[in-house]
Known about the structure:
It is built from 12 helices and no strands. With 216 residues, the protein is an all-alpha fold. The protein has 3 domains: 10-80, Alpha Horseshoe (Serine Threonine Protein Phosphatase 5, Tetratricopeptide repeat), CATH 1.25.40.10; 96-151, no CATH class; 153-216.
Amino acid sequence: MLFRQKAPRTRSELVAEADRARAKGRVKKAIAAYRRALELEPKDPVVHGKLAPLLARARQPEAALQSFHTAAQAHLDRGFADKAIAVYTQAADTFPHQISLWQQLAQLNLTKGYRADAVRALLRGRFHFRRRNERRDAITLLQEALAFEPTLFEPKLDLALLLAREGQRSEALALLEPLAHGPGGPQLARVHWTLLRISPGVGAAWRWVRSTLARR
């Protein structure tokens, strides 16, 4: 008896198999099926978008990042910037200590005219960089956010403290100096408190006390 050779599975069948495996929590099987589907269409943004988080769960960060980048670029190549933004949002949430992801997310938002979203992305990224050895990255994100929106108050205080802790006291003081001559109120008291932390002294302490009393 002759047996008919089984036809190769199509991309759609492989993706469906991977989707079922993913739904059941079978990560390795899902990864294998998505990869076989990518052999048929290597730059499929939808498949890469599904594969990347699974690779991250499987502790394959480099492969996961590559899939995130491939998915985003494929969306951009097809003119779908909003989909690329969604991919980079997921990538940044998955790998929050990758500064380039927050920067890329901000840049994509900016190219679409979403200035406020670009600033929010940079500020959200900054708060993932809290350790001493991450200060330079935190400073970079704050500086980029302030370049887009120079009037931000809290980020300026945050940046000034980080600069001072990194030995850039003069830069920190220069950042706060214009704010120290602003109108009174809670913000002025915050500025003087930050100045006191950066440059302790009787004069700085008195200015802080005076601005605090003026609030009452």
